[in-house]
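2024-03-11 09:14:02 INFO receiving multi-entity request
2024-03-11 09:14:02 INFO entity count = two
2024-03-11 09:14:03 INFO echoing inputs for audit
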Amino acid sequence: MKLIIDESRCKGCNLCTLVCPYNIFQEGSKLNEKGIVVPSLDRPGRCTNCRLQKLYQRRLCGVCQLICPDQAIHWVEEEPYEPLGVVIEF
Amino acid sequence: MTPSLEEWYRQERMPHIFCTGCGNGTVINCTLNAVVEMGWEIDNTIFISGIGCSSRAPGYVATDSLHTTHGRALAFATGVKMARPEFNVVVFTGDGDLSAIGGNHFIHACRRNIDMTVICMNNMIYGMTGGQGSPCTPVGAISTTTPYGAGEPVFDLAELAVAAGANYSARWTTYHVKELTKAIKAGMETPGLSFIEAMTQCPTSFGRKNRQRQPSDMIEHMKNHSILLSKKKRLEEEGKSVPDDTFAVGEFARRNRPAMGVYKK
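2024-03-11 09:21:47 INFO inference complete, emitting structure
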């Protein structure tokens, strides 16, 4: 699964940067064509839901999607599946 | 086959009209997640709202909806439930809509205990008309009609619902999204009137005048100034003082009083 922000819906309130336990969402720096600073994703492969949703067969965490007032955050299937070389730090 | 979360939104009407960082979108997310978990059908559900920012919410839900007159959402919802008791009725309403102009409808809907779910998006202000003070504006907060700070005590809607006889009453904020979803689901499962008050942020009309210009400032404020109801009761039992500027969050009542309009298959 892949985490994406829908740029046509995001209004740049940065609430997702506040709640993500992995700090995947970072405040953006560039304006998009609508004049909105959309948050940038820092190594989205670390997201629990991206990694483990298939294994557990249910939505894990998902607080960013719940708190997003503009329904801009969702997960899409990756085709073909790309194993991102995520190093889990202990 | 129950509809998925995406099917519950009117995708062609998105993005919605709410301001940047408005908490109403969060409450819609939580409600629709709870509805999906309940497994309701789109054709069997009806969303009703009055007038205000919050009341634009049913326009983004794929079900049939009623956008009614100011404060009278509960009166219309009563009519819907009496005419078609097999429908699942959800009412979206705001604090000005529910507590100020529709206060009498609210207490009598609680007293009659009609089988519906009432979700109040309490943004502590009349947001749509330009930020006038509502009965839920906190003491000391500045609004258009209270330029020296609101001086009147706040209406505690969750306690009011308990006193008026609702079967379920809870209060959460838009920071507590998981708890809010669970509370809405519990309210939908409970027969009789279930009242869920969701404290939302309003950075445009409320935060701008109260030094909380960013949506995250208001979320942080709600996070730091909410106190669990169980903790509040414990502090009171121990004789310690509860901080003045906090509000209680949690489940205020869950009981099984005789309800009106419960559909029996």
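2024-03-11 09:21:48 INFO post-check: The domain at 15-254 of chain B is CATH 3.40.50.970 (Rossmann fold).
2024-03-11 09:21:48 INFO post-check: The beta strands of chain B are 45-49, 64-67, 88-94, 117-122, 168-173, 194-199, 226-228, 247-254.
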